[in-house]
Every structure is written in C-alpha cells, then in structure tokens.
C-alpha cells in the first residue's frame, strides 16, 4: 500500500493513499509502520470491505514539517490531491465523508454520559485536548466551517455534525467548476483542495472517534459504548 509520510524530526504521521483518512502516528517511522496493519484492518472493517494481509509499505511522498506532528498538527497536501475529479469519484468520496459524520454522531450518542471522562487534562498547540464525549463531539463538528471555508465555501456549524457537513456539500455543489478541484491558499499559507478537504474530514473524524471510543471504554466499560468504527 502507498503512504504519505509527514514528520517533524522523527515524530511521524503516515497517511494511506488508498484508504482515505486512515493514518498512524509514531515517535518514529518504524513505530508508525508497525501500527499500519491494525489501522487498515479497522478502516476496512468500518467500510465493510475485505481485509488485507501482508501489507507492504511504499512511501510515495515525504514532508519534513515544523508543526507539532506528535499532536496531529498537519499542513500537507498530497500530490494526489490536485487535479480534476470525476463526478463518480466525487460522489463516492462525499458518501464516505457523510457516512463518517453520521457514524461519529452515532458513536457520540452511544456514550452513556457525555460530560464524564476519566482522562487527565492535557494541552496541545490548539489548547486543551477534548476530554469528554461532548467536548470531542463539539470540537470535531466545529471544524466544518473552517474546512469548507478553506476552499471558499461559506458553511456553518449549525445542527448535528452530519447536518452541517451535508449543507456544506450542498453549497459546494452550487459552485461552478467545483470538480476542477482548484488549489487554494488558505489559512497560514496552507494549501487546500476539495480532495484534501474530504481527506481531512475523514482523518479528523478518525482521530477523535478513536479518542472518544477509547475514553468511553476506559470510563464506562467496553459493553457500554457502540464500536461504530470497528476499533
């Protein structure tokens, strides 16, 4: 499988090119590679696709970043995220991104107490790490206007994570030439495209879905929360 490697020194993020949104983190490249089989298995289980065995890692792009990679800070745009989309590719990616939002919402709803958490407080580059299911949900939902805004779409964060994301796509589809997938210079000089935005939604959902599921299991017990993403 092909992967993109973003790192700050040894601190590593590996992104799958084929399983869009799947990723691993590690204190170094070897540690991130070791996590790939479990991550791909989980992702394919979520997508209800056949499992893979004996995965070989091919790194097709590398970026040495000065961002806090260990906290999942990222500004990379993949070489494969530029160039026009076919309508079929767009609709397939859109369906996956909306399914992710719906599954994230259902995971959140399954947590017995949305304001309870056993996790200690921790700070990162963007402030306090969300600890409770409610904090994780609000944080994940509220990137909607930011992500769509980076490609010129004036979206909002109103309603559920699924509802506001779906409205964002409806606004996007009213924009002439959106399938041309132009590259935009967004906040802080970061480059964005429609493909990147959809990958970022899937990636960001996965980061916080993992955190929410693991927190809920540790706080309430494995049988007290629905494992929607198959972690």
Describe the structure.
The chain folds into 2 domains: 2-76; 80-224, Up-down Bundle (Four Helix Bundle (Hemerythrin (Met), subunit A)), CATH 1.20.120. It is built from 7 helices and 8 strands, in the order E-E-E-H-H-E-H-E-E-H-H-H-E-E-H. The strands form 3 sheets. The protein has a 4-stranded mixed beta sheet with strand order 3-2-1-4. The protein has a two-stranded antiparallel sheet with strand order 5-6. Strands 7-8 form a two-stranded antiparallel sheet. It is an alpha+beta fold. 41% of the residues lie in helices and 14% in strands. The two termini are 20 Å apart. The mean pLDDT is 95. It is globular. A hairpin with a 2-residue loop joins strand 1 (2-8) and strand 2 (11-16).
Features:
globular, 2 domains, alpha+beta, 7 helices, 231 residues
CATH topology of the largest domain: Four Helix Bundle (Hemerythrin (Met), subunit A)
Uncertain segments are none
Number of domains: 2
Order of helices and strands: EEEHHEHEEHHHEEH
> What is the overall shape?
globular
Rg is: 17 Å
Task: Give the termini separation.
Answer: 20 Å
Number of helices: 7
Structural class by helix and strand composition: alpha+beta
Please provide a brief summary of the model.
With 231 residues, the chain is an alpha+beta fold. The protein contains seven helices and eight strands, in the order βββααβαββαααββα.
């Amino acid at each position: 499988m092909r992967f993109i490697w973003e790192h700050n020194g040894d601190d590593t993020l590996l992104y799958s090119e084929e399983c869009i949104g799947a990723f691993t983190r590690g204190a170094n490249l070897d540690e991130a590679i070791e996590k790939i089989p479990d991550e791909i298995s989980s992702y394919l289980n979520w997508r209800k696709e056949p499992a893979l065995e004996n995965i070989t890692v091919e790194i097709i792009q590398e970026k040495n970043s000065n961002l806090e990679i260990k906290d999942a800070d990222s500004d990379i745009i993949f070489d494969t995220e530029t160039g026009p989309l076919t309508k079929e590719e767009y609709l397939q990616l859109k369906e996956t991104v909306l399914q992710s939002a719906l599954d994230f919402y259902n995971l959140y709803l399954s947590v017995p107490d949305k304001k309870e958490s056993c996790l200690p407080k921790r700070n990162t580059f963007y402030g306090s790490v969300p600890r409770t299911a409610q904090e994780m949900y609000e944080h994940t939902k509220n990137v909607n206007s930011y992500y769509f805004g980076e490609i010129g779409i004036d979206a909002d964060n109103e309603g559920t994570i699924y509802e506001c994301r779906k409205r964002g796509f409806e606004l996007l589809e009213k924009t002439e030439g959106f399938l041309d997938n132009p590259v935009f210079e967004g906040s802080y000089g970061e480059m964005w495209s429609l493909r990147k935005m959809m990958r970022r939604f899937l990636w960001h959902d996965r980061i916080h879905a993992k955190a929410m599921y693991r927190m809920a299991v540790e706080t309430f017990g494995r049988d007290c929360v629905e494992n929607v993403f198959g972690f």
